[in-house]
Amino acid sequence: MNPYFTTRFAGDTEARNFLPSLCLRASVVKTSRTLHLGAAFLALISLCLQNTQASPKNVLLICIDDLRPELASFGASYVKSPNIDKLAAQGRPFLHHYVNAPSCGPSRFTLLTGRYGPAGNSALFERAGEMAKTPDAVPPSMPEWFRTHGYTTVSVGKVSHHPGGRGGADWSDDSKIEMPNAWDRHLMPVGEWQHPRGMMHGLANGEIRVKTGDMDVFQSVEGPDTIYPDGLIVNEALDQLGELAADKKKPFFLAVGIIKPHLPFGAPKKYLDLYEGVELPPIPHSEKPTGKTTWHGSGEYMKYNQWGKDPRKDATFATEVRRHYAACVSYADAQVGKIIAKLAATGADKNTVVILWGDHGWHLGEHSIWGKHSLFEESLHSPLIVYYPGIGKPGIKTDAVVETLDIFPTLCDLTDLPAPDFAQGISLSPQLSNPEATGHTALAYKSDANTLRTATHRITVHKGGEVELYGHTTDGSETLNIADQNPALVAELKQQLSEKLAKKEG
Ligand SMILES: [Ca+2]
After folding, report:
1. What is the pTM of this model?
2. How much distance in Å is there from the Cα of 187 to the middle of ligand 1?
3. Which of 200, 255, 347, 365 could staple 155 via S-S, CB 3.0–4.6 A?
4. Is 44 found in the same domain as 190?
5. Which residues of the chain have pLDDT under 50?
């Protein structure tokens, strides 16, 4: 028996049995047949019916790959993201949500386990290896926590690092599971793309990445959504949503992972057409930083075919790349629209918590980086929206600094599940009740450096001891390292960073 479940099940059962036992006592009251007791009985039985009819809340988690918080609802009016914006208008947009690592695998690790983890992309597979060796030493993942508390858990698309959650050469090996015990079903349609690995970097009509240098860095082919991989993923998600909502006996935890706007930037042409005549603002702070930073040479991006061009040297081409990224955002946004519309069509929208989450940001030329993998704001800042029926102050944004780690305890709060005491985040219930509520610091890490974002500063400490300190109260560009001028603040923030890292290692 996993020690993380033993005591929690007992408490949970007790809590859920409380209302029915109250109703039983009410039926005893009825035997008195006095008028006032009869009225009290009717009132109480009505209350009991209301409560016993209230099903546990479902969870719909929408993960979007490499999505910058550059959306109309987050202040970028030139981006066409009407469906995400509608969700933001009905829920709580978190304007300062930070991921715990600037890469898919380790960022998704923290979302799905509620714990800080390794910095590499194989973080969840490493965890699966530990589970095989010493299962009792590994706390349950978020979907496993919901599953063992009565939920049907399903993932479709890229939720964990590998779309579909399997390893092996083509990411389709049923004997290599990325998150054991997590899902009742973990699905990844592949269509013409042959396998999940083909879908991950697929372009139109089944083109899969064989040699990266032969694959175009962007593309826009005329056709329906299903000529690119996310169209298939979302069609499967709609089917699953219909099936899950029809099951009135069990609540569901459905996670849907949309792959765009991850590289290569391919989307149906109609989404690129949305940007016809739209002027993108200039790239802010596009200069390569001086001094020790986490700047890198944009290796992931540069591997693709760019027809001999380079956005770092060619402003016209840089704009073209940015327009294709924006087209991919609009394509992903359209998929979100379909999922939310289906949720409403099933009626489950009245009883479902919706989370929309980006797994990290992406530099579109800021600091002369085209990609993620840095510890600058652009890599770590991503969209987070939380929605549930009856949320107070819908659409009011919060500036509280929060981190991905916080999502697991938040979802437990919103669904009345027991709080997972092994999870390391902090519930966002205060910000959901009151958008003015303050947040906390956000930790992020790479193998060779760690960073802490506060409401006013970012400190980055390299393994070699070098320190970057940036102010965020007047200028968010992170171009001026003020560490040398602020030794006392550096010492204080290094201490805070050490405390968070101790929690990570603990
Ligand atoms: Ca990603």
Report:
1. 0.90
2. 19
3. 255
4. no
5. 1-53
